[in-house]
Write a structure and sequence with these properties.
Blueprint lengths: L10 H16 L20 E6 L3 E6 L4 E5 L15 E6 L3 E6 L4 E5 L15 E6 L3 E6 L4 E5 L15 E6 L3 E6 L4 E5 L15 E6 L3 E6 L4 E5 L1 H4 L8 E7 L2 E6 L4 E5 L13 E6 L3 E6 L4 E5 L15 E6 L3 E6 L4 E5 L15 E6 L3 E6 L4 E5 L15 E6 L3 E6 L4 E5 L28
Antiparallel strand pairs: 1-2, 2-3, 4-5, 5-6, 7-8, 8-9, 10-11, 11-12, 13-14, 14-15, 16-17, 17-18, 19-20, 20-21, 22-23, 23-24, 25-26, 26-27, 28-29, 29-30
Length: 445
């Protein structure tokens, strides 16, 4: 049995991945832009789902292939060779799950509790979910199968459970939605997360955090139960079309394209009335939103002024957020940056112009110019701003905390900076790449 942690998801992933998941699954207009947060050329035609574990992330491409990055201490980002025809993905603490078009399931990564030991003969699966150390599968006949950690009964599917249409896995509990709109939950109940409210009905979607559970009803209202810090649904919340829960936070997407979040994390303090959002970015403790009119909003931790948007800033087309600094690209190709500057990460080089994309690492900043060249500045302890001599024909950029990655027009990838986890060791023969992203780990320059 492993000791429970009440914070199984990093704060950075909480804001960024939850909203990205909602955007991809529901194709909201708010994120239907030419560039994602890391400014690589990603469109909904290329990716259709994302998932995030504790320190790793994964993306499902429309061609059925899977990409994973981030921490790999248990092999959670080692996508099996030849894996294809994937239609759904899920990420636990340090294990990864994929469902294929034939209804089979593939899992890899940490297997301390048997969470990647897919039951022999499991087939006809239509959905998967992953908790801290357990995995859940929904079958076409409406039955549920669960395996892995069972210290709290999270893998003990209730006898006779049937007619299930959706499943969710919290840290140590499991939730099922039935065709009649009712909800069933089992497993850890230290905070009442499996105590489904009496009379709850007309539910259309479910989500589960570490120790709380959330349900969306047909009338657009939201019900939450479990740890009180995460279940205080904002008064008057309505017209919700999608929900997501991770760790100790909950996020709701409304029909007008606005996002509402709650919990005990400063990243969820979305400004009242914020709407018409076209892009978002998340730093270590702050969040940035770009509106369709080119204005920028920022909130969260402001110890270094990272949420102090410069007065009069307008005509912004791209935003990026480092650990404690923020970057904006304007329509005229100029760059503006503010926040923590101990390493010069907000000192935009004099004369920098014709920029088409920006990316922010932990303590460094990267810009792509129209001629395909790259400029980088800020912390350079690991060479993350040492752009390789002769680098050209770049079409997309991404920045991890201490490394930098670029994509070239020929589909090749170049990476530099810290390499303690092999993050800059581009696989031999890698080609035909259409997008790049960079993960992040420990918060030091």
């Amino acid at each position: 049995m492993r000791t429970k942690s009440r914070h199984i998801t990093a704060a950075l992933g909480t804001a960024a991945i939850i909203v990205a998941t909602i955007a991809l699954e529901f194709d909201i207009k708010a994120l239907d832009t030419d560039k994602n947060e890391d400014n690589s050329e990603v469109t909904h035609d290329e990716f259709k789902a994302v998932a995030a574990g504790s320190d790793h992330s994964m993306a499902l491409r429309t061609d059925g292939s899977v990409v994973a990055w981030g921490a790999n201490s248990s092999g959670e980002t080692d996508v099996p060779n030849g894996l294809k025809d994937v239609t759904a993905i899920a990420a636990g603490w340090s294990h990864t799950v994929a469902m294929r078009t034939d209804g089979s399931v593939v899992a890899w990564g940490d297997n301390q509790d048997g969470q990647t030991d897919v039951p022999n003969g499991l087939k006809d699966v239509t959905a998967v979910a992953a908790g801290f150390g357990h995995t859940v599968a929904l079958r076409t006949d409406g039955s549920v199968v669960a395996w892995g950690d069972n210290d709290y009964g999270q893998s003990d599917v209730p006898n006779g459970l049937k007619d299930v249409t959706a499943v969710a896995a919290g840290g140590w509990h499991t939730v099922a939605l039935r065709t009649d709109g009712s909800v069933v939950a089992w497993g850890d109940n230290d905070y009442g997360q499996t105590d489904v409210p009496n009379g709850l009905k007309d539910v259309t979607a479910i989500a589960a955090g570490d120790e709380h559970t959330v349900a969306l009803r047909t009338d657009g209202s939201v019900v939450a139960w479990g740890d009180n810090d995460q279940t205080d649904v904002p008064n008057g919340l309505k017209d919700v079309t999608a929900i997501a829960a991770r760790s100790r936070d909950t996020v709701a997407l409304k029909t007008d394209g606005s996002v509402v979040a709650w919990g005990d994390n400063s990243l969820t303090d979305v400004p009242n009335g914020l709407k018409y959002v076209a892009a978002i970015a998340a730093g270590l403790g702050h969040t940035v939103a770009l509106r369709t009119d080119g204005s920028v909003f920022a909130w969260g931790s402001n110890f270094y002024g990272q949420t102090n948007v410069p007065n009069g800033l307008k005509d912004v087309t791209v935003i990026a957020a480092g650990d404690y600094h923020t970057v904006a690209l304007k329509t005229d190709g100029s760059v503006v940056a503010w926040g923590y500057n101990e390493y010069g990460q907000t000192d935009v080089p004099n004369g920098l112009k014709d920029v088409t994309a920006v990316a922010a690492g932990g303590y460094h900043t990267v810009a792509l110019r129209t001629d395909g060249s790259v400029a980088a500045w800020g912390a350079n302890r690991f060479g993350q701003t040492d752009v390789p001599n002769g680098l050209k024909d770049v079409t997309a950029i991404a920045a991890g905390r201490r490394h930098t990655v670029v994509l070239r027009t020929d589909g090749s990838v170049v990476a530099w900076g810290r390499n303690e986890g092999g993050q800059t060791d581009v696989p031999n023969g890698l080609k035909d790449v259409t997008a790049v992203a960079a993960g992040t780990c420990t918060p030091w320059p």
